[in-house]
UniProtKB/TrEMBL annotation:
Coiled-coil stretches: none
Protein name from the UniProt record: Four-helix bundle copper-binding protein
Family matches, as InterPro entries: Csp_YhjQ, YHJQ-like
Recorded superkingdom: Bacteria
Organism: Qipengyuania aurantiaca
UniProt cross-references to Pfam families, sorted A to Z: Csp
């Protein structure tokens, strides 16, 4: 199933949406990566003296922002461009913040999460010019 085809099937979609749909798709994935990373951080803290609380918080915040971004980016009826633009900008900031924190930790789940966050932020940046 293609998210692009779903958005293109909307009766009010008349413009190019590839960048916005790609940002929405990456935001959905990023939300899942961040949720998984936060859960893995909780497991790492169990029985250790590691404090992963900042990483967990950043991952959970990013997961929520990314999930909201994906939903807003796929809604096409009576768009609220100012809100969508603000949401994309917030997603970029949340992803960058999460990536910076995850890059401080030497484990695979944080490395993968940081990589996904960076990709999501890049895609949201590419979508911003479409939202005018």
């Amino acid at each position: 199933m293609s998210l692009q085809k779903m958005v293109d099937a909307h009766p009010q979609v008349q413009d190019k949406t590839e960048e916005l749909v790609l940002a929405a798709r990456h935001a959905m994935l990023c939300s899942l990566f961040c949720t998984s990373c936060a859960d893995a951080c909780v497991a790492e803290m169990s029985g250790s003296d590691m404090d992963m609380s900042q990483c967990i918080r950043n991952c959970l915040d990013c997961a929520d922002v990314c999930a909201a971004t994906a939903r807003l980016a796929t809604r096409r009826t009576a768009q609220n461009i100012d809100v969508l633009r603000s949401q994309l900008e917030t997603c970029i900031k949340a992803c960058e913040t999460c990536a910076e924190e995850c890059e401080k930790h030497d484990n695979d789940h944080c490395r993968w999460c940081a990589k996904m966050c960076r990709e999501c932020a890049d895609d949201c940046r590419k979508a911003l010019p479409l939202v005018q």
